[in-house]
Design a protein that fits this description.
This protein has 383 residues and is of the alpha/beta class. It folds into two domains: 142 residues, Creatinase/prolidase N-terminal domain (Creatine Amidinohydrolase, Chain A, domain 1), CATH 3.40.350.10; 229 residues, Alpha-Beta Complex (Creatine Amidinohydrolase). Helix content is 33%, strand content 19%. The chain has ten helices and 15 strands. The strands form four sheets. The chain has a six-stranded mixed β-sheet. It has a four-stranded mixed β-sheet with strand order 7-8-9-15. Helix 4 runs parallel beside helix 5, helix 7 packs across helix 8 and helix 9 runs antiparallel to helix 10. The longest helix has 24 residues.
Amino acid sequence: MQTAFPLNTYEERQARVLKRMEAAGLDALIVNFPDNINYLTGVDSLGFLWYQALVLSPRMARPWFVTRSAEEPPTWELSSVRDARFYDIASQDPLAIVADFLKGLKLARGRIGIEPTAFTFSPAQYQRLRALLPQAKLEDATLIVAEERLIKTAAEIGFQRQAAEMADEGIKAGFAALRPGISEVEVAGIMAAALGRAGSEYAAISPMIATGRRSSMTHAMPNRVAIAKGDVVIIELAGVCNRYHCVTMRTAVVGRPSGRVQDVALLLEEAFLAACDASRPGAPAGAPDRACNEVLDRLDLSRTRVHRIGYSLGIAYPPTWLEAMILDDTDGHELAPNMSFTIEPNLSLYGEGFGMKLGDTVLCTERGCERLSALATGLTVID
């Protein structure tokens, strides 16, 4: 068994999830998120591109996994799974296999937890499962596993620390490559190569870079556009260790920055540090966001924020690396020791033709907030 953790770790996680299921009154849980499946079993392959599911129930001695037949070798070799069913994608219906399995457990009328927000569980698949189990109660259990993942163990934090070092190498390589005439895609490739050399696995989102006016487009993907002197350059990427992600974001300027760019960068750094300082145990999830805006409002910049200030993260697969907790006032969580999350008060001054990114993965500790990146937080000037 080649997995990130020993067998007993997965068994303990499964036991805790079963307790959450019992508290929610569920007879079974169908897990579809690939990150949740990895968390519970170690399964690590691209099999999630086709339907796969992990079923847990107090009526079973251990979880049962269903995936396509091509995934049989990695299931046995790269996970803790011991009970599985492999289907032929050309001739078999995996939803029917799951339904028949639940019927075999006498749960045709049971309360079945599902993950309806999983990108690997489509509306069509939900309708198919609904039709196959017409008397079962299919209930939203999206948070059952997700809540269990929010507090990280020492081993998980160790993986994220390694991922942070990898991310730093990617950022440094990207900055070293910046010069007039080089394209965004070339810099993105250089950063990807640096991540690989540092030992990073593929990330849920590939390295991002946007330059000049495109820097105001926070989620623009790398393009063939050439970087010019005077351009603001935003970079975002993640290092990955055993699927545990650490996200880092920075901004640079190729040549001398304007006074306006310098002023915005200085205030953004102050706001970022204020948000970090507010990320303390017992604080509501929205506290970092409010602390950030109090600083940015001195230059009327909070309105240029493009999204929430952060989110919890850990294990991730494409297309996203977000976990369940969102750092804003709509989220009811309180920050607690060993939670890891991003702080990223990114700005889009679209009307002025530039934007900025500044973000780190941080750890909430008994003493407060610890940034996992070792990089400086200020604007980097490329001479």
